[in-house]
Specification:
Number of strands: 0
Shape: flat
InterPro entries: CENP-S/Mhf1, Histone-fold
Helix content: over 70%
Family: Belongs to the TAF9 family. CENP-S/MHF1 subfamily.
Distance between the termini: 65 Å
Mean pLDDT: 91
Keywords: DNA damage, DNA repair, DNA-binding
Number of helices: 4
CATH topology of one domain: Histone, subunit A
CATH class of one domain: Mainly Alpha
Order of helices and strands: HHHH
GO molecular function: chromatin binding; DNA binding; protein heterodimerization activity
CATH superfamily of one domain: Histone, subunit A
Pfam family, one: CENP-S
Low-confidence stretches: 104-108
CATH architecture of one domain: Orthogonal Bundle
Structural class: mainly alpha
Length: 108
């Protein structure tokens, strides 16, 4: 019974993801004056879903390795370590949330 509920939840989440990606693709294709097929949106949705699954598994593994049951900011930062641009954006966001900016600001 629990497996059936999980499958239903997964279907609902994929449908919501497909809808959201479809809206974004529609907006962008209108701006660019091009068309996107439903197959493209479906393939993009599957690719994003696979990335979400990989990311969630990695985050879960990082937190378990650290002996925690909850995913922390450190786990997310560890995940972003291979994407310098993403890491910079996330670090800036974390610093802002903590109420300070740890990077030195150069004066002109």
């Amino acid at each position: 019974m629990a497996e059936l509920n999980n499958e239903k939840l997964e279907e609902e989440l994929k449908a919501a993801l497909w809808f959201s990606i479809g809206k974004i693709v529609d907006e962008e294709t209108l701006k660019l004056g091009v068309n996107a097929t439903p197959q493209f949106i479906g393939a993009l949705t599957e690719m994003v879903w696979a990335q979400i699954e990989n990311t969630s598994q990695d985050l879960e593994s990082f937190s378990k390795h650290a002996g925690r049951a909850t995913i922390s900011v450190e786990d997310v930062m560890l995940l972003s370590r291979r994407n310098e641009g993403l890491e910079d954006v996330l670090r800036s966001f974390v610093d802002k949330q903590k109420g300070g900016n740890n990077k030195a600001v150069k004066k002109k």
